[in-house]
Design a protein that fits this description.
Elements lengths: L1 E12 L4 E5 L5 E11 L18 H9 L4 E5 L2 H4 L12 E12 L9
Antiparallel strand pairs: 1-5, 2-4, 3-5
Pfam families: SUEL_Lectin (PF02140)
Protein name: SUEL-type lectin domain-containing protein
GO molecular function: carbohydrate binding
Amino acid sequence: MEERRQFHKTVVADAKKSATLMCADNKKIVKVDFASYGNPFGACGNYMLGNCSAPNTMKIVEQYCLGKNRCAVPFDQVLFDKEGDLCPNVLKNLAIQVQCGHQINKFSNYMRV
């Protein structure tokens, strides 16, 4: 399967109930470029992990969003940090950057012998 990426979408959630992403023109989320629950910094196209980041954030965001036109990722400490507060006294944000595009299936021709 080949992915044709079109543009980036970015959302930052801070104390909201969820981070909602939506691709235009019936495109799908084909790749999660960046995802961090903690104290990420930077801006679209140049996000970086801060000194506090839940290690499972990328996997969680991929489960919620990949292959969908729209997704809402809950801004919930329990979802990202099941062990408790990974960084006490640090204000948490959820930063997500994805690529939207069309997925193109490539089919191979097989010959029976």
